[in-house]
Amino acid sequence: MLHLFNNTRQLAALLLGLLLVVLHIPGLLYDFTAGDTTGGVLYDWMIWLTGHTRTGQVLLGMLWVLLTALLLNRIVIERRVLAHRDYYVAAGFLVLASALPVFHIFSPAMGGAVFVLLAINRLMDLAKAAEKQGIIYETGLLMGLAGLMSPYYYVFLIPTILGLFSFGAFRIREIAALLIGWLNVFILAGAIYFLFDSWDVFVRKSMDVSYALYMLVHKWDRKTYIVLQFFLLILILAVLLQPRLAIKQQYHAKQFVRVVYNFLLTAGASLLFVDLYNKPSLLYLLIPYSAAVLGVYVKRYGRNPSLLVSAVFMIAFLVVLLNLYRFHWL
Questions:
Q1: Mind giving me the DSSP string for 228-295?
Q2: Which residue of 3, 102, 172, 248 is most buried, as measured by CB atoms within 10 A?
Q3: Rounded to whole angstroms, how far apart are CA atoms 151 and 280?
Q4: On the CB side of 1, how many CA atoms lie within 13 Å of its CA?
Q5: Could you give the dihedral angle defined by the CA atoms of residues 313, 277, 259 and 299, in that order, rounded to the nearest 10 degrees?
Q6: What angle do CA 126, 94, 48 make, to 5 degrees?
Q7: 8: pLDDT confidence band, cut at 50, 70 and 90?
Q8: Cα dihedral sign for 18, 19, 20, 25?
Q9: Is the dihedral of CA 187, 157, 40, 61 positive or negative?
Q10: Percentages helix, strand, coil for the chain, rounded to the nearest 5?
């Protein structure tokens, strides 16, 4: 099945769309519960566009997942991490991003992912730029938009600043440019809410984040532990693959892998401080970077994936389908 996405022709794109529809029809058929509806002000605006209907939020979630998959796939190709153009990364992302019922409804975590990927893509432009402050400022703007989707995306300022260090832009003025870009988004949004006499709403939405060591003090149920172990397995696998991804790669490809790993590890570490029982959709923070790492590894040693990799993808696809359509294990 995986070999069907071995190019970027129209047929492969149609198959990618078909994969999306097959994986997300359950969101329309079954009454899946949204994992998190306490996002930032930008999330509220997006929900307003859906008319506050559940069907609208499911359809928006489908379109957003497809947009994220195509964006992630394009970034991997443009940054020359892969020599051959295909949809492996996008296909892997769609399966991971459809694994849980809570991922089928547009959520703050899902919304912010696109802006973080755009920020990573802009950050990579520092490798060839003579004037870096403009790029860094725009990266800050994109991270600010992610923060307006969900305050939990504030934590990704850490790997963004580490990314500046990777490209030799770690001076005070570069960090200031990043933070000014990030703050300007909130200043503009806050001004709009202030003019409409809703400043208290803006502050509450922008500060609605609760980080605490829930893993140590909160008793999760069996289902939550199973889900967490599954995603931690993906995280551990991605980390173990890192040394092999750095072998015989071009400079820009190595930089891309390094930046993606910074975001992946930050996402994984942040989950230790989140109550995943009440906000399981925050597991989505891991998915884009995990999909990028696993997808790149699939193509690292050849144009076609191995039989083992194809079998694993097929099994994962079937397990996700059975969970969504029939058994509802998770």
A1: HHHHHHHHHHHHHHHHHHTTT--HHHHHHHHHHHHHHHHHHHHGGGS-TTT-GGGGGGGHHHHHHHHH
A2: 102
A3: 15
A4: 17
A5: 0
A6: 85
A7: low
A8: positive
A9: positive
A10: 75, 0, 25
Closest of 74, 82, 49, 28 to residue 249, by C-alpha: 82
Take residue 6 and report the two structure tokens written for it: 């071995």
All residues at 6 or more sequence positions from 127 whose CB lies less than 8 Å from its CB, including other chains: 167, 251, 252, 255
Tokens of 319: 């397990």
Q: Do residues 112 and 149 touch, judged by C-beta distance below 8 A?
A: yes
CA 42 – CA 223 distance, rounded (Å) = 31
How many Å separate Cα 2 from the centre of its chain?
A: 22
pLDDT, tens digit (0-9, with 9 covering 90-100), for 292-321: 888 777 766 556 676 777 888 888 889 888
pTM score of the predicted model:
0.91
CA distance linking residue 46 with residue 111, whole number of Å:
9
Contacts of 119 (CB under 8 A, 6+ apart): 139, 142, 143, 146, 160
d(C-alpha 119, C-alpha 5), whole Å: 26
Three-class DSSP category at 146: helix
For residue 112, the tally of other CB atoms under 10 A from its CB is 27
